[in-house]
Amino acid sequence: NMDKCLECYEKAGILISNIGNAFHKHSAGLNYNMGLAHLHEENYEKAEICLREALEITMLLENDDDIGVAAILNSLGNVSSGKLDHSSAKDFYNRSIEERRAQLGLSPQQRCEYVVHTYSNIAIACCKQKQYRKAEEYIEMGLKTIKDVGDLSDEEKFSILTSKLYIQLGNVFIHVGDLDLSMQNFEKSLRILSKLIKMKDLDFQGKHIGVNFDEVEQEMHRTRHGIGLVLSMKGKFDEAIGIFKDILEQKKEHSYEQGNDMLNDPDVGKLLCDMARIESLNGNFEEAIMLIDESLTILVDWSWCSEDHHYVEEARELRFKLTMM
After folding, report:
1. Residue 270 to residue 311: CA distance in whole angstroms
2. pLDDT exceeding 70 applies to what percent of the chain?
3. Do 111 and 152 meet the contact criterion of CB atoms below 8 Å apart?
4. Cα dist. 133→1, 177, 217 in Å?
5. Contact 70, 114 (CB under 8 A)
6. Phi/psi of residue 33, each to 5°?
7. Distance between CA atoms of residues 135 and 259, nearest Å
């Protein structure tokens, strides 16, 4: 209950203020947590106020051991991204990387993970500004950062992270119209994830591999979705629809096993949107309308997510065109 959580934070704030030191380190932590709570609630204005307060206190204390300036800057980047201010988001993310590189007490692996995640966020912001070549540069920087670390103590974790970067690159090349390069990157992701999925049997045998297989399967679905998109853009509609339907079936089975509602998954909304697009191109307008309506039911609930925002616009545009036919 986020409202209850925020209420407790406010009470804690009153107690901290009574201590008499306005820049007490606990006040920085409190504002940071309140900022994250408001961010979760999509209240970007309040989130920004709390996070800026946390940043000011942390910098005045000159104490980067608790929360860290880098973490606060990264969260401010997420706030700007939520507000669709992608230019500010990039600035915050870049400042976060500078702070993270200078932060003491981090292993090379920890620093690599934080920096690569932030490069990925910057690439997303670049894509929102249609700066696809710039996005490509940041993703390549992320891949190079992983490669430069060399000895990765948690190889599986970095394999998943690498596959995510290849998926991003695949999507970037779709936007610039280089479908062959797009497919190459999706296939690189596919090879990495296929290798990890083969380790699942070992995990069941009690080897405790430490891989989050739910995350692996989710990234596998996104990879195959990307492959399906490329195939559809090459006019191979039957192959693309076959992949999309298979992904939906797997998601349905997983949702049933977990007791979750598949309609709460934004990736399902995106799949349905792309299936509707293919059906409309095939002249199956009734099927396309049914799919796009299902897609919008899901996507509208996720329209706050800057990464998925363009899909809502595309789905609405397609729905309008279908209505006119």
Report:
1. 7
2. 82
3. no
4. 42, 12, 29
5. yes
6. -65, -40
7. 37
d(CA 196, CA 154): 13
**Amino acid identity for residue 147 in this structure:** K
Measured distance CA(246)–CA(228) in Å, rounded = 11
Amino acid (one-letter) located at 148:
D
Q: Judge if pTM exceeds 0.85.
A: no
Instruction: Output the six-digit token pair for 60.
Output: 């005045």
Q: How many CB atoms lie within 10 A of CB 101?
A: 12
CB atoms within 10 A of CB 48: 20
| Phi, then psi, of 209 in degrees rounded to 5 | -60, -35
Whether the Cβ atoms of residue 286 and residue 260 lie closer than 8 Å to each other: no
Phi/psi zone of residue 130: left (φ > 0), alpha (ψ -120 to 50 degrees), beta? left
Residues 6+ apart with CB under 8 A from 14: none
Chain segment 79-134, per-residue pLDDT in tens: 998 888 989 999 999 999 998 888 777 888 888 889 999 999 999 989 988 999 99
**Cα–Cα distance between 133 and 65 in angstroms, integer?**
36
Q: How far apart are CA 148 and CA 197, in angstroms?
A: 25
